[in-house]
Amino acid sequence: MKAMLINRCGGVDVFEEATLTRPHPGPNEVRIRVMATSVNPIDCKIRAGAVPLSPAFPALLQGDVAGIVDAVGDGVTSFAAGDAVFGLIGGLRSHQGALAEYVLADARLLARKPDALDMVEAAALPVVALTAWEGLIERARVSPGQGVLVQGGAGGVGHIAVQIARAAGCRVTATVSGKEKGRLARRLGADEVVYYRDEPVASYVARLTGGRGFDVVFDSVGGASLDASFAAAAPGAQVVAIAARSTHDLSPLHGKGLTLSVVFSLSPFVHGGSLARVGERLARIAQLADAGLLRPHIDPHTFSLTQVADAHRLVESGGAEGKVVVRVGV
Amino acid sequence: MKAMLINRCGGVDVFEEATLTRPHPGPNEVRIRVMATSVNPIDCKIRAGAVPLSPAFPALLQGDVAGIVDAVGDGVTSFAAGDAVFGLIGGLRSHQGALAEYVLADARLLARKPDALDMVEAAALPVVALTAWEGLIERARVSPGQGVLVQGGAGGVGHIAVQIARAAGCRVTATVSGKEKGRLARRLGADEVVYYRDEPVASYVARLTGGRGFDVVFDSVGGASLDASFAAAAPGAQVVAIAARSTHDLSPLHGKGLTLSVVFSLSPFVHGGSLARVGERLARIAQLADAGLLRPHIDPHTFSLTQVADAHRLVESGGAEGKVVVRVGV
């Protein structure tokens, strides 16, 4: 079978085409015939060696996968050959990723693919949806009627956060940089769109919340955006961040008694958290998709397995218009 | 009746003795014959004008009170004349404090004084216990068996946090600066005591948690201690801070997916939060005290109402050995 391996960290040129023996599933593992896998910014950082998650070489990157169960190991009762599944299988040191025609995965990291989504859409969902789900549902515990601000509401995680907050009955405001992204955010269910480059925080907080601030702020951008999120939060609000490797004055958290939760979707792999939670969350996410409440936006460029370097280049350029997917079996 | 007013913000010399008419309770208010009121650091900051909570002059400072209900206004059904109560009644712009022989209070801000505590002890409890309660029980949602680190475990809020965490079934480690405070923390129920000046974070995290970190960190100190708290937290941990007007690198929050909650006990007064929550929490706190699980440590110095300046001076000196209480009717 064909695979795209890396044997060192570096630029997009580190991918190497290889022909490997089809792997055999061990206990509690399934073998997946990969249909598609998507590129997340964390995959580019792992490839570049920019985060302390470097894989053991030779390595298969990219945790997001959608495909067909092809064989199951001992002890697997939740899936059988022929099942369409999606999941976050790894792509870092402890667990190999999805850049091959057939991959092995811990069965706890998978859920049944939602019928409403095709394989490309299902492969685009795991990392971004797990991140938004954990942040909004488990950490911030959003409830119907709350005002939710999504910073970067048209981005990879942000556009999913808009839909999950909307599905939870919240009133959603999305910040975006330009008109096209504003249209996307509105189409995905944002009640209000803020062009953050054109309007100060105090202005839209006054305009949209009567000056009180938002009950929940989901920040998918980080850096200066996180300071804006603290400023836009109501007293006692929940702020969720997915990028927080930066230095901030915490006075606004103090004055307003805020809670700041940082979500890192690969945490279960890195810190020994519950892998079963991954599959459980994905099953809930699939329900939302099948209810017509959640659909990832896919960049129109298409990439085959051997074109993964180009897919990484597009993600790193910042110019992708939606999730970037590598098509393997579709 | 006698009162100690301030007519401007400033040093401890701003207190002025005054003779006022005994006030009449309005709707939903009770009049309390004050037995004692305690000094919290926030009271000194309000007096000094160091925080944006300056009262309307002439002002009665100090929110903590214990006393006897003396009269009730229309609509008050929860208390009657003769009831022994304690509460957090204000001491900032919107609600006057307790530095008088008789004071008015919104009935929602009070609870029945625990039988197990005398008036001095009850007056020492509201601000510190409400802060520790909200942080540990409501924000961090501590559960039995969790490892809780209390930074500043012999301080005003910290020594109450040790007892509340212990009562919740947690294994409690307290950091302290010296041997005497270490003995106090142990007497209050700390399972382990860390002398933070003598032992690096990595050392006690390895020694007491096998390197994994604490499930919950309650930081009553702030500043550099907060960075130590981030370092001492386990992946996915809850960090509670009560002093966070400072600038911090949030990378540890990112890497470990932490949640940081900042608790500010006066928030309901400042931001229009639920005043009823204050009384409800105090009722729970009183249950703990009556169960023998919670008792404030009181500084041995005694101060009368007219000696409030000396009481503030002691708190500001940093040399208090427990909560500093002003005795009014006892």
From TrEMBL, chains A, B:
Q: Where in the cell is it found?
A: Cytoplasm
User: Major place of localization?
Assistant: cytoplasm
CC terms in the record's Gene Ontology section: cytoplasm
Which keywords belong to this entry? Cytoplasm, NADP, RNA-binding
**Keyword set includes Transmembrane:** no
Recorded GO MF terms: oxidoreductase activity; RNA binding; zinc ion binding
Question: Would I find RNA-binding among this entry's keywords?
Answer: yes
Point out the signal peptide segment. Answer: none
User: InterPro entries from the entry?
Assistant: ADH-like_N (IPR013154), ER (IPR020843), GroES-like_sf (IPR011032), NAD(P)-bd_dom_sf (IPR036291), Quin_OxRdtase/zeta-crystal_CS (IPR002364), Zinc-ADH_QOR/CCCR (IPR051603)
Task: Report the residue ranges that make up the Enoyl reductase (ER) domain in this protein.
Answer: 10-326
Extract the SUPFAM superfamilies matched here: GroES-like (SSF50129), NAD(P)-binding Rossmann-fold domains (SSF51735)
Q: What's the subunit arrangement here?
A: Homotetramer.
**PANTHER family xrefs:** QUINONE OXIDOREDUCTASE
Protein name, entry field: Quinone oxidoreductase
Give the originating organism: Crenobacter intestini
